[in-house]
Amino acid sequence: MNIKFAVKSARVGFTKITQEEAARHLGISLTAYNRKENGKAKFYADELWKLAQLFGVSINIFFDRECHNKTQDRGCTVCE
Fold this sequence. Notes:
44% of the residues lie in helices and 0% in strands. It contains four helices and no strands.
């Protein structure tokens, strides 16, 4: 499964939630969360669902082709 929008970008861009808080919410260790967020391991779909709820965003930001201008430095290439 390809993640279109990085979990770290969502966590930092939309919330002030720490990695520790996100790991606790998922019921995994900080090390496991860090590995997933940095792309060394994959998130399961249920974990992405829980993170979307925690971050207060739609799970679609991780998969769908939506505009994410808020967190892009160079502008949105999807909406052009």
